[in-house]
Amino acid sequence: MSIEIAGVSKRFGDFVALDNVSVSIPSGRLTALLGPSGGGKSTLLRIIAGLERADSGRVEIEGVDATDLPPQKRNVGFVFQHYAAFKHMSVRRNVGFGLQIRKRPKDEIRARVDELLKLVHLEQFGERLPAQLSGGQRQRMALARALAVKPTVLLLDEPFGALDAKVRKELRDWLRRLHDEVHVTTVFVTHDQEEALEVADEIVVINDGRIEQVGSPDDLYDRPANDFVMKFLGPVT
Ligand code: ADP
Ligand code: MG
């Protein structure tokens, strides 16, 4: 099982954002979509999520042809850089929102929210409002909310980009630890080489709407596919 992107192209007017992209993203792993700004990372992630339609090509998610499925039928969870929490709702209600709109029984929601708050160490903060959390705690709430509906795929677009360096580092470790516990197929977008190398099992390097290389952090360092990858990764520190 995997996410299979096959021959996906996307234009915005005359501009080619994705140029016949094919890539296989392995199931149950933590994959970084890494590349410079404007490279097409968010566009590819949005196409996987169903928030954007490719002009051509196919998207398969864990064995299901998702090319024409709307986002709500893809069973994906999202976390974005600027987390849109419901400001007037408690942390608990934010985390349980996806279950509530799916009309899950109250007891089930309560139990699942308890479990998730524990997972992201926010069990003391359930009754607070999002504004009463720190930036890092808010992104942990976002992770819990995205996981609430047990998605087959978790997608994160520069989830820690807006935070300061120390909190970012902390959240990287969180993401890694969470992934090791829930093993959900995860794709996260980043332009930060160090973040990708430190956190990901697998890295997809994308630039100018094309895939430059796919491999483990070691593969990329030991055998960069081309000059672009070598220069982009920079000197080993
Ligand atoms: P990344 O996430 O790697 O920074 P994006 O996927 O957001 O890159 O964007 C790739 C390119 O496509 C950029 O040059 C961006 O300006 C362009 N682009 C993205 N979305 C749109 C849009 N809705 N309309 C026009 N151009 C867009
Ligand atoms: Mg982006």
What does this structure look like?
Residues 3-233 form the ABC transporter domain. It is an enzyme of class 7 (translocase). This protein is an alpha/beta fold. 36% of the residues lie in helices and 27% in strands. The protein has eight helices and ten strands. It has helices spanning 41-49, 91-101, 106-119, 135-147, 165-182, 193-199, 217-222, 227-233; strands spanning 2-12, 15-26, 30-34, 56-61, 64-65, 76-80, 153-157, 185-190, 202-207, 210-215. Strands 6-7-8-3-9-10 form a six-stranded mixed beta sheet, with helices on both faces. Strands 2-1-4-5 form a four-stranded antiparallel beta sheet, covered by helices on one side. A hairpin with a 2-residue loop joins strand 4 (56-61) and strand 5. Helix 2 (91-101) crosses helix 3 (106-119) and helix 3 packs across helix 4. The longest helix has 18 residues, at 165-182. The mean pLDDT is 93. Magnesium ion (MG) is lined by residues 41-42, 189.
Key features?
237 residues; alpha/beta; six-stranded mixed β-sheet; four-stranded antiparallel β-sheet; 8 helices; 10 strands; binds adenosine-5'-diphosphate; binds magnesium ion
